[in-house]
Prior knowledge:
This protein is mainly α.
Amino acid sequence: MNQKLVESLAQVILSLSDEERQSLDHELQKASASGQVQDLKLRLKQFEDHYQMSSEDFYQRFQAGELEDTIDFFEWNTYYEIVTTAESKSLNQIHLGQYSLNVQQTQSETVSILQSWIDDKDEAEQQETGRYLVQVLDEDRLSDRKLFPD
Length: 150
């Protein structure tokens, strides 16, 4: 084992913020789960080779009661359900991840627009726009009482 590498990694990990440590832990868990799913896929392939049918075909036939109730088939059925559930969750996380990135991009763009408005130094235009907004808001009220009295 390369002791210097281990010490360097330990220093890096210790320097991480709590959020970064949680992210690292999450990534390690994903990698571990991914490895377990790969092991199950290998086992599915062994069943497929042995019984000369795809896992999808097996699953449909087994669920329909067309195949006998053997230990191998129960095991195959269980592995198939675990793999398909894990893949479905993984796809959902990818979609959520993309959604999160889109939200962050939209938030960033919104902040940029707002900041450009704040940085705009044309006070005359800002005052004119302010007067116009007050007028429009006061005109669109159900009561005669002004929202922004003079």
